[in-house]
Every structure is written in structure tokens, then in C-alpha cells.
Amino acid sequence: MKKSSDDRQVIAPFHSHAHDHGQCVVDAIAAAETCCAKDGLSFTPLRRQVLELIWSSHGPIGAYDLLEKLRASRRNAAPPTVYRALDFLMENGLIHRIESLNAYVGCGDPERHHGAQFLICRDCQCVAELDDDEIGKAVTRRAKALGFSIHQQTVEVVGQCADCAARL
Amino acid sequence: MKKSSDDRQVIAPFHSHAHDHGQCVVDAIAAAETCCAKDGLSFTPLRRQVLELIWSSHGPIGAYDLLEKLRASRRNAAPPTVYRALDFLMENGLIHRIESLNAYVGCGDPERHHGAQFLICRDCQCVAELDDDEIGKAVTRRAKALGFSIHQQTVEVVGQCADCAARL
DNA sequence: GGATATATGATATAATATAACACTATGAAA
DNA sequence: TTTCATAGTGTTATATTATATCATATATCC
Ligand SMILES: [Zn+2]
Ligand SMILES: [Zn+2]
Ligand SMILES: [Zn+2]
Ligand SMILES: [Zn+2]
Question: Chain A residues contacting B, CB < 8 Å?
Fold first, then answer.
């Protein structure tokens, strides 16, 4: 089945509870390997492990939650351990930071340098990652009119996801 | 001169260095008075003072910077003093929180409950507040398609303002 | 191997935000 | 007018998120 252009603009939807969680972590790590190899970046064990933990959490996760998990295998991990790995992963487009949550989430399309919009559920903190053309163009147009140049278009919108609407 | 529809969608532009700073603080406080009176809210001296300090800073300001200024007149002000006032001002649409900066900025149109988009300069931390129809609609359309309901549409875009582009 | 840059370890501290409980002022109910 | 209830503020302590700094290790290049 061919993906419509509309589907491609949804980089990561709200998660169906059905999908194969283990596999999506494996795929994400493989994609990261590819990106780093291509760009000559050193994807060290620490960085890989942090990325794995982020994907395993399967949603935005905070730096200190990450640190706690990391300590299961690295007893003396400290905040800078995590923050340095996060910096590397962000600089190279492997994860995004969600400002509204002070949390970090795996990027659903790391091989492509893309703008991103996040829909963030205020109840369950799940997020959807989009690269919606219309939103992007509307933002670009207005920014241009004001002489504002967008370096990395990251849009965050807070609301309520469908699951929470049904549940609450 | 009549405002175009386009102008109305720019709630607060990047500041021209020429405008009358003192007057815009006065106007903002007057508008807040009006809003609170209309809604039966108690606009206490503390809350007024915090709002004044925010407008006086004339751009996004952090809670602890605010606290420091507040202490000039309230020697024993503490973090909760500021955060409670900020909560009140946010709940009632008199200020916005800029997540990307951990900072607070006066709302340019408090009498109207509106969606907002912020263009945030990563170099000088200035912001422009917009209520762009096209951005709003594009976001709404996509959210709807995903079953996501937006409660308060707040969009934050990071980049570089025209002044900084010229200066750097 | 020695020089250089990159990555991590380790300790301390900064910056942002909230919890908890006490006290005061205000205004309505009795 | 007393009493009660609520909203607002004071005060102290603590939680959460992020960075600075210096030391050590590891990889890369010549
Ligand atoms: Zn992405
Ligand atoms: Zn939800
Ligand atoms: Zn506003
Ligand atoms: Zn600027």
C-alpha cells in the first residue's frame, strides 16, 4: 500500500497500543547507526545506550528519569553523563527536546533534516511528531514578513489526545 | 490609518527601539485593570506589581529575575510570591509563558482569549506575539485529523530576529 | 610514540519550580 | 457583631532540571 503525501507528513503518530515496541527500538537504533556512519559521527556505547533508553520509554522522557535507568548498567552515571549524550543526539537530529515537558523524544525520521511540529497531550504527555507542509509554510510566510529567519522550525502545541478524550 | 487584517494578526511585533516604553507599561496595566474588573478578579497590589515588572522588562523575563526586582520593594519576597502571581496572571490571560526560555511575557491582547504563536530569537531572546490565522487553521486542521483537541493553542518557533541578523 | 582532539568521570553548584503549613484579610452568613 | 469560609500572602524547606569545572581516559593523526 502506497503512503499518501498526507501520511508522510505525520512522522510519528500517537501510538497505537498494538504496534511492535521492541522492533521499533531496534529500527531506531539501526537508523541512528546509519546516520552516524554517513556523517562520520562517533556513535559511542554511551550515546547508543541513551538513545535506546529514550526509544524504550516510548514517549518523551526526562533527563533524570533517563539517568536513573542508565544507572542500572552504569553505577556512577551523573547528570553530565546524560546531558552530554542528549546534546550529541539533539545536535545530530536523532532526538528532539520537548520544551513544554522538559523531556526528550526519539526522532521518527533522523535521516532527513526536517522541521517538526509536536502535538503534546497535557494529560498523558504523549506526543505526535509532524512535518506538516501547511503549518510549515504558514509559519515561514509570517516569519519572513517580520524579517525573522527560522533556523530550526520547532513548533509545540499543547492539548488533549484522542485516547485521553475518550478516557476522561 | 486603518489597520489591515494582516496587522491585526501581529499582536506584538519585535520592538522598534523608538516606541514609548513608559506608555506601553501604563497601557498594559490599564488593560489588565479592565479585564480583572470585568471578570470579577482581584487584581491585588502584588499581582499588579509583578505585571508591571514584566512589562517594564519589555520582553520575556525569568521568575528569579522578577523576584530580584520585586525585592526592591518587598524585602522578603520568596519564590512562591512570584510564582503565585505568575499563575494568576497566566490563568487569566494577562501574560504568556515562553517554554523555550523559561520566561514570562506580557500578553499584547489580554481582553481577547486568543491562540498565540511566538517567534523567539535565539540570540537576543526577544519575541513577537502573533495570532496568525493561517498558522492557526493549519494547526487546527492537522490536529483534528489526528483526533487531537487543542485547548490553548500555543506555538513557539525559534530562530533569529531581523536586528540580530543585521548585527551578527 | 607523542601530540592533539574527543569523550567520559567526578564533584560541585546554578537555575527553575513546588510542597507544606502558618497567618492575615476580606466578606458573607448567622 | 460574631462566626465562619475563602482567598491571598508569608515563610521555610525541598524538588526538579541543567551547567561549570577540572581530572582522566580513549581515539586519531603525524
Ligand atoms: Zn524529527
Ligand atoms: Zn493523552
Ligand atoms: Zn496573548
Ligand atoms: Zn534577536
Answer: 6, 9-10, 13-14, 99-100, 117, 119, 121-122, 128, 130, 132, 134-135, 137-139, 141-143, 145-162, 165
